[in-house]
Amino acid sequence: SPLDSLSARERQVLQLVADGFGTNEIAERLYISGKTVKNHLASIYEKLNARDRTQAVLMAVKMGIVKLT
C-alpha cells in the first residue's frame, strides 16, 4: 500500500508540507538540501499517485499519514 511504501523521511517531509512549510524551510529543519527535499517530494508524488503538494497532503490526511494542525 502507499502508506507502507513511504519512508520515515518522506513522512517527515509530508508532515512539514502539511504544516505549511516551503521547500527551503523544510530543508533547514531537516538539515538537508532543497534539492533533496524536492527529490523526496517527487518520490512521494509517485508513491501516492499525486500531482502536487496539495493532493499529496490531502491523500496523506485521508490515510492518516499526517495530521493537520
Q: Treating each run of at least 4 consecutive H or I residues as one helix, how many helices?
A: 5
Q: Mind describing the biggest β-sheet?
A: none
Number of DSSP strand runs:
0
Percent helix range:
over 70%
Q: Compute the gyration radius: what is it?
A: 11 Å
Q: Report mean pLDDT, rounded to a whole number.
A: 94
Low-confidence stretches: none
Explain this structure to me?
The structure is a single chain. The protein has 69 residues and is mainly alpha-helical. 71% of the residues lie in helices and 0% in strands. It contains 5 helices and no strands. The termini are far apart.
Characterize this entry briefly.
This protein is mainly α.
List the defining traits of the structure above:
69 residues, single chain, 5 helices, 71% helix, mainly alpha
SSE inventory with pairings:
Blueprint: H1 2-5, H2 8-18, H3 23-30, H4 34-48, H5 53-63
